[in-house]
Every structure is written in C-alpha cells, then in structure tokens.
Amino acid sequence: MSYVVTPFDVSAKALGGPVHCRFVHLLSGIATRHSDTIDCVFLMDGKRVLVAISCAALAKLREGENKPLSDQQLADIARLHLRRTLEQGYDPSGSELLLGEEELRSLGKGLGYL
C-alpha cells in the first residue's frame, strides 16, 4: 500500500535546530517485534524513529465506539505525534514513541478523524 505522508521539517529543541522527517512505512508490530502495536517508521535526518500505536486503543475505538481508523489516518496521527514530540523538546532518535489511547484520541480529534 501507498500512503501520502508529506515529508516535513520541524524545529527540534533537543537537537538544536530543524530536522527533516520522512515517513517510511506502517506495519504490524505484532508480527515483527512481538509488540501489541501498529508501527509507523520515520527517518529523522536519516535516523530511524518508530511511533508505536497501541492495538488495544485501536480495538477500543473500533469495537466499543464504532470508529475505525484507516492506515492512512494512523500514518497521519503518527506524523503529528512525532512533530509534537520534537517541538516539545524530546529527542526520539533510535527509540520507540508509544502512542496510547488518550493521546490517540486527542490527535485523532484534532485531525477530524474522531
């Protein structure tokens, strides 16, 4: 599948200036890392950054509230989460950013998906 996630530059306080971020792919963390997540992989100035979206939070939205999110919407939410994380002064280089239910709802509402 192909997702439209525009590369972006963001001012990263912790890194001392702007960084260039590019979406790479979205995949199931269950199969690849034995993690109960959907993983969105980005390159941040060439360094791998993973935004891991909780499958439990997605299931709750889908089954409990009948609000399923598409892969494209998940990629957009992950992009916004990474952008905000960098703007707030956290350096996620080489790490995993876990996106739980509360933040997923907040970002999804902000983007008009929920």
Which CATH-level-2 architecture? Answer: 2-Layer Sandwich
Gyration radius over CA: 14 Å
Task: Using the alpha-carbon principal axes, give the shape.
Answer: globular
Class from secondary-structure proportions: alpha+beta
Helix fraction, binned, reads: 25-40%
- CATH level 3 topology: Double Stranded RNA Binding Domain
Biggest beta sheet attributes: 5 strands, mixed
**What topology, given as strand order, has the largest sheet?**
1-2-3-4-5
Q: On the 0-100 scale, what is the average pLDDT?
A: 90
**If helices are DSSP runs of H or I spanning 4 or more residues, what is the number of helices?**
4
Span between termini: 23 Å
How many runs of DSSP E, i.e. beta strands? 5
Q: Note the beta-strand portion.
A: 25-35%
Number of self-contained structural domains = 1
Identify the CATH class: Alpha Beta
- Secondary-structure element order, as H and E? EEHEEHHEH
| Poorly predicted residue ranges | none
Entry summary:
With 114 residues, this protein is α+β, with helices and mostly antiparallel strands.
